[in-house]
Structure formats: C-alpha cells, structure tokens
Design the sequence.
C-alpha cells in the first residue's frame, strides 16, 4: 500500500507500462461520466471508495473532489506516476484479483473502463464483493455487441472483431457480478456526447480526424493491441477519405447527431 502515486511497482503490467507513458494527456475524466458515477454511488458522506484499475487516477480525483475518500487500486507504476496528489486519495499497488484491502473496508466500489484488462472477472468480482460493505458496486464498461453501427469499424474491422473476444457480453458480466455480490444487477446506457474529454475508443465518433493523431490512439488500448498493418492501412484510407470527401459522403450524417450509443454501459450492483 502506498500513500503517494509514484511508488515502485511490485506487479508487472507491460501493456500499461507501455501505453501509460502518455495516457494522462488524452484520458482526462469527463465530467458527465463522473457526474453519472456520483449519482449511481449516492451521497459521498465522507465515505470510502475503492477505484479498481484506477490508471492515472482521473476518476479517482473526480470522485475525491465530490467528497469520497478513495483507495486507488493500480498495478502499473507508469500509470500511477502520472496521477495528481490529493489528500483524499491513497494509492495501492495491487491487482483487481487481490485487492490488498480488508474485508468490508470500503463503502462503495467503482471500476471505470478497466474490466477488459482484468485477468479474471470471477476473481475480481469476488474481491470487490468481499471488500465492500453494503454500498454499490458501479462498473463503466463497453460491449461492442450493444453498439449501433459505428463507422470506425469499416476502417479497422479486425480490431473490432477482436473486441468481441476482449469485451465479454453485458449479460455475462451482469450474471457474474450478481453471483459474486448476491445482489440485483442492472445496466444503464450511456450514449456518448460528441465532445468527451476522455478519449477512449469510441469517444471521437464525431471527430474522425482525431483518430489520425498518434497521441490519441496511444491512449486507446484496442489500437495499441491491434495488428499494425491493419492500423496503418486503415489510417491511410481514413486520411484519404477525409481529404477527398468520401468520409463526409458516406458518414457525414453523424455530424448532425447529438449523441451516439456505442455500447458503453454502467453496470450497478446495488
């Protein structure tokens, strides 16, 4: 357990030690996601919250500023090193499968866009259920099966096909969480606004030019893990289509949309 964000890691996380180098530049907490998390968690009342897979602490910080005392669980020292100090945040170098927290020691649990990086959802959900008292467990995750047609898949079909293996179906996630927690589990859609600050995979749905920026893609693990030849080919085609107007003719309707359901969901065990 560490009180600051810059301690040495005792666990190995090569993916995030790699992509985490510039993660904080493009993965800021979006206030609308933080607000919804806060609503689902209920009043902070100076309670203690475990943020599982906290990354650089973007949502840990947002929730700490809303009154929570946060236990930020993150195994990657590279990710932790980019976090901001806050008196209400304690950093813990641990995995979701072994939280290094006493049983019934926190009032609530959150896990934001990290489920697909956990080694075992069964073990992770058991740990979340073990450490929480009677408060909610709130997950924010993605299921490509729940998405409306997304133009990005036309440029990177292999990457999106891989997402079907990486992201488990919502019904399976809900079932596993319900079994572990012994609670009723619900899911809530989060249609994406066009100006998200947190640049996860589908966040730039109405800003296609941002996918051409290496720094933006570096914070999106599906791009980091995707076949490099497919990424290069898809980027070349996307750049050409944006330049000659093909993208606008084929997909320009999305520029008139106020939001887009890309399959992002809050899952709540209350």
Sequence:
């Amino acid at each position: 357990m560490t009180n600051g964000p810059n301690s040495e890691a005792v666990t190995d996380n090569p993916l995030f030690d790699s992509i985490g180098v510039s993660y904080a530049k493009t993965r800021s907490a979006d206030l609308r996601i933080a607000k919804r998390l806060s609503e689902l968690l209920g009043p902070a009342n100076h309670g203690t919250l475990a943020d599982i897979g906290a990354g650089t602490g973007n949502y840990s910080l947002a929730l700490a500023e809303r009154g929570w005392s946060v236990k930020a669980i993150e195994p990657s020292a590279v990710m932790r090193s980019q976090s901001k100090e806050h008196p209400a945040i304690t950093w813990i170098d641990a995995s979701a499968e072994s939280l290094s927290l006493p049983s019934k020691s926190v009032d609530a649990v959150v896990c934001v866009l990290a489920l697909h990086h956990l080694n075992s959802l069964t073990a992770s959900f058991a740990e979340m259920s073990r450490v929480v008292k009677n408060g909610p467990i709130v997950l924010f995750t993605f299921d490509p099966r729940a998405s409306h047609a997304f133009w990005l898949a036309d440029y990177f079909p292999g990457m999106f096909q891989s997402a079907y293996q990486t992201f488990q179906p919502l019904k399976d996630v809900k079932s596993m969480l319900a079994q572990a927690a012994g609670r009723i589990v619900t899911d809530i859609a989060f249609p994406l606004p066009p100006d998200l600050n947190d640049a996860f995979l589908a966040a730039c749905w109405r800003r296609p030019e941002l996918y051409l920026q290496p720094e933006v893609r570096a914070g999106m693990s599906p791009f980091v893990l995707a076949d490099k030849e497919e990424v290069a080919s898809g980027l070349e085609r996307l750049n050409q289509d944006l330049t000659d107007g093909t993208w606008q003719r084929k997909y320009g309707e999305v520029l008139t949309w106020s939001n887009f359901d890309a399959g992002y969901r809050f899952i709540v065990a209350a």
